[in-house]
Amino acid sequence: MAANKPRTSSFSRNVGVVPTSQVPGLKHGPNGTVFLSSGIADLDKILGGGFCLGSLVIIMEDPDAPHHMLLLRNFMSQGLVHKQPLFYASPAKEPRGFLGTLPNPVSLKDDKSREHDTEQEKTLRIAWQYKKYFEDQNLDSQKDGKVEYCSDFDLRRPLDRHALSGQCIDCVSLQDCPNLATLYDRCSTFLAQIPRFDGNITLAGRISIQSFSAPQCHFSDKEWDMLSFIRSLKSLVRSSNAVAAMTFPPSLVSPTVLKRWQHLADTLLSVRAVPDEDKDLAKLLTGYQDMLGLLNVHKVARINTQVPVILEATTYSMKLHKRRSLVLECLNQAPVDGSSGTSHATSGSCSVSSKTGALDF
Amino acid sequence: MAAEAISRALRDGALEGEHAPALTIKDSIHAPLGAFVFDHILAQLSSNISSSKSQAQGIVLVAFARSPQFYAELLKSKANDAASLKKWLRIVDCYTDPLGWKSQLAESGIVSNRSTQNATTASLCKNARDLDMLFSSIVELGKEVIRETKGRFAVAIDSVSEILRHASISSAASLLSNLRSHDQVACLFWLFHSDLHEMKASSALEYISSMVACVEPISNTTNGKGMNSENLPLIEQNLGRGKFSVRFKRRNGRIRLMSEELHTEQMGINFVPAFEDYVTSQSLVPKVQFSLQLSEKERNDRAKVVLPFEHQGDGKPIQIYDGRRSVSESKTENKETNAEKMHVNEDSGRGEIIYIRDSDDEMPDSDEDPDDDLDI
Known about the structure:
Chain A: Belongs to the ELP4 family. The structure holds two protein chains of two kinds. Chain A is an alpha/beta fold. Chain A contains eleven helices and 14 strands. Chain B is 35% helix and 18% strand. In chain B, α6 packs parallel to α8 (169-180). The longest helix of chain B is centred in the C-terminal third of the chain and has 18 residues, at 331-348.
């Protein structure tokens, strides 16, 4: 948490006293925002804390690979672990079936903490005064009854039954929606249970829409209708304590609509597939063998502030750590990412720090 | 290699809980060999089915572009007899009367109904616009060919381009994806002519399928010039040969690209491995801001740069103009004129800056170390 402390300046609204959240799964962020976890620890770190309540997250799929499902699974599982109501829509006839593929958090009585200690003893002898920094991590996870903000999910094990039962999970098949108005009504009834007031937040919810413009949906050729649905969804989500995550295949919409779609997102991510047995790529990147795919972060949500987020790197490789949990790693390739199109991507970090340095009084 | 990999994937079929593998065969007018590829794959799958090597126990063929008799003949010629064909082959006949016009005319008595008998049981489809009915007839016929309750059947659709004439892309896409997710479908494949439709239809079909096989011309004919004497040999060539490239979406989430050549022959087609030039994946990885490689043009330009040295490394001494009014050929002359100039300019009193090259005194490339003068 100390490492993630956001830079505060006079222009950011500091929430006076930052209370430890009584509500599990929520965290206070800068500028009066509240975060909830995406389910992937690395992604939370990259985005500066997680997904902002009231924001719309859009993930652009690669038609050749199902990596967006991994992101959605972690997102949905995290919500269920924290007992947050969930709304799920997909083009399949039986969306409930997808719930069976959600991962379970790695249980703490597993090898995790023991392994950590023994490894430490073997490889590294840490001076006694520094041990306190390492112990912090263990303490957090071992507190009885305290649930972690972001769980480590084991993708090989399905979610426990007790997490699924007794939960408010609303599933909709996009094929059953003759038009977008019905889908909008379902969303607004779901969000009505988690409105936003000025007081303390007691409950947060998650909306997860998979493959929104898939060709099987009847509304997939009505592009302007889809855009106005997204805009209405965004306004609904803004006035409630929820995060909406939506994936869609960008190759199936026309370029102008795609641009508008991208602009509507508060946080924009995209996943890309990697060719198999490609010798050139194996030479270019270390760790190519373990890579599942690539994740690009195009936009990060900034609510209640005008200061943009400029990331050090925007392309990450998705890998499975110990074959069970999803981790994101920077590419070991070039020090600088020039593909963002703006040359001030590199000088940006310098200018941001100098600005806040000058104005920090 | 690529064609065999496709046949293997279709033969192995679907895993429990997963969607069935689906193949799109795509071609265009420039390389119209898609139908041959379809026939080849159909024949391979049929031989696997009849020898019980495949997960699919039967095949339901939806015939739009060619008649059921054609397929019966085709499969008979590949060493299948009529009796065994009846066991595992069912055909949905959307070729004879897809919109029901002939039966309407027959009913009204204008045209006498010519009955069509064929050896294979072909179920006649009279309304190609109703894809829900097509889906249920495919599933019904499929149930007839499987032997056990847990068995599966394969589905082959002659031409999705024909379906798209009568129905929208979203209903065609939902038909295909419902077939894919049906428990009893082992695999499915279809043919599609990409230049007859918008890009959107093409991308939608590629989105749904797990393997995409494209037939492309080996050499691109000059577009727009039509049939003239220069183009004819190229066009003829494209009717007999093509480039066959396949993109597999693997279970581990990666893409496998394979490519080979195909040649048409009397008894079908033949696949020949071609030299592979993979598209470099440079576009996937973020671009480095500085390029360490030189392009051809840059290399040429670099060779042409005149360096500010006397010797350019190519054996010819070059006189660099260094601001003196007259640059003479020999060095000795320079010295003399220099001395004169000095003298002259002293008298002028105009406040010029005079620079006299003192490197003239040195022989070029002298190996003296200037530090040798120091007495330390």
